[in-house]
Amino acid sequence: MPPRSRKIAIMGFRSVGKSSLTIQFVENQFVDSYDPTIENTFNKNLKINGHDYTLELIDTAGQDEFSIVPQSYSMNIDGYVLVYSVTSKKSFDVINVIHDKLLDMTGKSHLPMVLVGNKTDLRMERVVSQEEGRRLATSWKAAFLEASAKENQKVVDIFHTMISQTEKGDGSDPEKGNCVLS
Ligand SMILES: Nc1nc2c(ncn2[C@@H]2O[C@H](COP(=O)(O)OP(=O)(O)OP(=O)(O)O)[C@@H](O)[C@H]2O)c(=O)[nH]1
Q1: Helix, strand or coil, per DSSP, at residue 55
Q2: Number of C-beta neighbours around residue 43 at 10 A
Q3: How far is the CA of 16 from the centre of ligand 1 (A)?
Q4: Which terms in the Gene Ontology molecular function aspect does this entry carry (predicted)?
Q5: Domain-wise residue ranges, the chain
Q6: CA 100 to CA 165: how far, in whole Å?
Q7: Distance between CA 113 and CA 102 in Å, rounded?
Q8: Nearest residue by C-alpha to atom 2 in ligand 1
């Protein structure tokens, strides 16, 4: 069987760790320096449940509540990894705005999504609780994970969960998209 192609956009506020999660997953390394992204594409092949997948990961530029989401991010994208930092309430607020903009742009009531609270290693700096993250994901009928790109915690799970979400269709049946992990 030919590999299944999945195009995934990684989105969120500036500096939440979108590039770090992507690079940790694709290249198994963590880069401590901060280099703002304009847009990068990464490719990775992997096998899940006996199926081969070719992933195209679009690591997008950080957005704030006023940014215009490029039209290209609403077309031909199979799923979205929406990232905030557990150390930034602002990034948590912004992710909700990005979520709503994506629904508006696509005209869908639900999209395959994984909500990710990153930087769990910064325990003393946490300002967004796991419960708050889980509640937001549940309200979207999205999957939810907390992760650390730095400590390589749950990073692989994010992309495996994302693929599972894309297998559930385009959300025409919202009940099917409900999968909350912790
Ligand atoms: N402690 C800690 N730092 C992290 C983690 N993930 C990313 N960082 C750091 O946070 C900063 C921003 O990380 P990036 O991966 O560049 O963030 P980004 O969301 O891609 O940023 P933009 O391109 O501006 O949108 C860098 O200094 C990273 O080293 C994490 O899990 N833990």
Answers
A1: strand
A2: 9
A3: 5
A4: GTP binding; GTPase activity; metal ion binding
A5: 4-170
A6: 18
A7: 11
A8: 119
| Paired tokens of 149 | 């790109």
Task: Write down the CATH number for the domain with range 4-170.
Answer: 3.40.50.300
Instruction: Using DSSP, state whether 97 is helix, strand or coil.
Output: helix
CB proximity list for 149: less than 8 A, separation 6 or greater: 17, 20, 21, 23, 24, 30, 118, 119, 155
pLDDT tens digits for the chain (182 residues)? Answer: 889 999 999 999 999 999 999 999 999 999 888 888 889 999 999 999 899 999 999 999 999 999 999 988 988 999 999 999 999 999 999 999 999 999 999 999 999 999 999 999 999 999 999 999 999 999 999 999 999 999 999 999 999 999 999 998 654 444 444 445 54
What ipTM describes this predicted complex?
A: 0.99
**Both tokens of residue 41?**
């594409």
What atom in ligand 1 is closest to the CA of residue 119?
31
Does any ligand 1 atom lie closer than 6 A to the CB of residue 22? no
Residue carrying structure tokens 């994010």: 158
Task: Give every CB contact of residue 158 below 8 A, 6+ residues apart in sequence.
Answer: 21, 25, 81, 114, 116, 145, 147
User: What type of residue is 92?
Assistant: F
